[in-house]
Amino acid sequence: MPDTTFTRPDLTTFTRLDDLGLEVTGQLLEPHRAVLACRVVDPDDWCKRCGCQGTPRDTLTRQLAHEPFGWRPTTLLLTVRRYRCAECSHVWRQDTTAAAQPRARISRAGLRWGLVAIVVQHLSMSRVAEGLAVSWNTANDAVLAEGQRLLINAPARLDGVKVLGVDEHVWRHTRKGDKYVTVIIDLTPVRDGTGPSRLLDVVEGRSKKAFKHWLADRDQAWRDGIEVVAMDGFSGFKTATTEELPDAVTVMDPFHVIRLAGDALDGCRRRVQQELHGHRGRKGDPLYSARRTLHTGADLLTERQQERLDKLFTGDQHVQVELTWSIYQRLIAAYRHPVRSSGAAEARSVIDALTDGVPAPLVELRKLGRTLTRRADDVLAYFERPRTSNGPTEAVNGRLEHLRGLALGFRNLTHYIARALLEAGGFRPHLHPQL
């Protein structure tokens, strides 16, 4: 049974000011905030220059935003005593660095509360500023700086990374400026089954140069420890990995392989639609009506969907679509095969079939074949290394999309990168051990 012994009410302990070296001397409850009058507990009356004891001279006040209680903003009105040395006439004030950083407007407890609100509770910066009763700029600058110091710049943050995931991400949807960034993900916990993926960094631009420079900035011992890099079909990421991580195995993500095949299927369907009817797909056109059914796995088709496909492929009008659809389904079956060696053999047979002998009219399959042949080793490497797909990377991208919606968009890339790292950097257990 938990201890239910009650003690005398202590406002200093309740507001956790004893951890800041402060003591509450009074309170003022205003309609929209609470003001706590405080004093510094330690006298700090010894001169830092000559070591003699000083005498009290006067006092001044310092106002700090503190963590809210019951969502009521709490302000600390701190009385700071000044001393004068009798020997060297040096004047100084009491040390308040335990309560707040020099010239800061938010207490250390308030910064901690704001950081937890951003990382754990996923609140917007506007809501944090409202809870601290400070301006948005003040809250943003202070909380992000604390996040950088405590979490992002931690020396051991990149330790233990064995599997990387890299992908592009759209951080804003305006025409002005570069809207793409490169996200680097730690997939090691996913491969080992110890936890979710985490965001390692966000780099401006989406190019070989951006990823290559990020890898080059890491020390050699860290790069030597990377075993696998999962990526999409962008050749720039492949080249950067080969140059900077020659011993790492590159894996082309199954999602992007299937997406390439799906794009070939859509391209073939649209081309045949134009050739047969002279216009884009319209309601009632068989190919247009079946566009979603064509992308459904064969083992997941309902009876109605199967009847629609049987009717679609009756005759020779849509034979090119049928051939492209069969390749698409074979790739899906390869990745879904319960035996990985058999799945790899099926994927290899599909690549071999697309390498030579594809009829000239099937331009979409020929293009797909060239891509898969060029990246055959990366495609097949997935079957030997389970749980190394870029699926968790896409999940992190989804979380960043949610962050951008929560903030109603970002205009400053530096702020976006910092918020993205706090949002998806895997810092929640550091601030809330029970999560």
Account of the protein in words:
With 435 residues, this protein is an alpha/beta fold. The protein is 45% helix and 18% strand. It is elongated.
Q: Quick gist of this model?
A:
The protein has 435 residues and is of the alpha/beta class. It has three domains: 11-152, no CATH class; 164-252 and 420-431, no CATH class; 254-384. The protein has helices at residues 11-14, 108-119, 125-132, 136-152, 188-192, 208-216, 220-224, 235-244, 254-277, 286-289, 303-312, 319-336, 340-355, 363-374, 376-384, 391-406, 413-424, 428-431; strands at 22-29, 34-40, 54-69, 72-85, 91-93, 163-170, 180-186, 198-204, 228-231, 249-252.
Through-space gap between termini: 24 Å
Discrete helix count: 18
Low-confidence stretches: none
Mean pLDDT, as a whole number?
91
Give the overall form: elongated
The fraction of residues in strands falls at 15-25%
**Domain unit count:** 3
The level of helicity is 40-55%
> From the helix content, strand content and strand pairing, which structural class follows?
alpha/beta
Largest sheet: 5 strands, mixed
Number of strands: 10
Order of secondary-structure elements = HEEEEEHHHEEHEHHEHEHHHHHHHHHH
**Rg calc:** 31 Å
Topology record:
Elements lengths: L10 H4 L7 E8 L4 E7 L13 E16 L2 E14 L5 E3 L14 H12 L5 H8 L3 H17 L10 E8 L9 E7 L1 H5 L5 E7 L3 H9 L3 H5 L3 E4 L3 H10 L4 E4 L1 H24 L8 H4 L13 H10 L6 H18 L3 H16 L7 H12 L1 H9 L6 H16 L6 H12 L3 H4 L4
Parallel strand pairs: 2-4, 6-9, 9-10
Antiparallel strand pairs: 1-2, 3-4, 4-5, 6-7, 7-8
Helix pairs in contact: 2-3, 2-4, 3-4, 4-17, 6-8, 9-12, 9-14, 12-13, 13-14, 13-15, 16-17
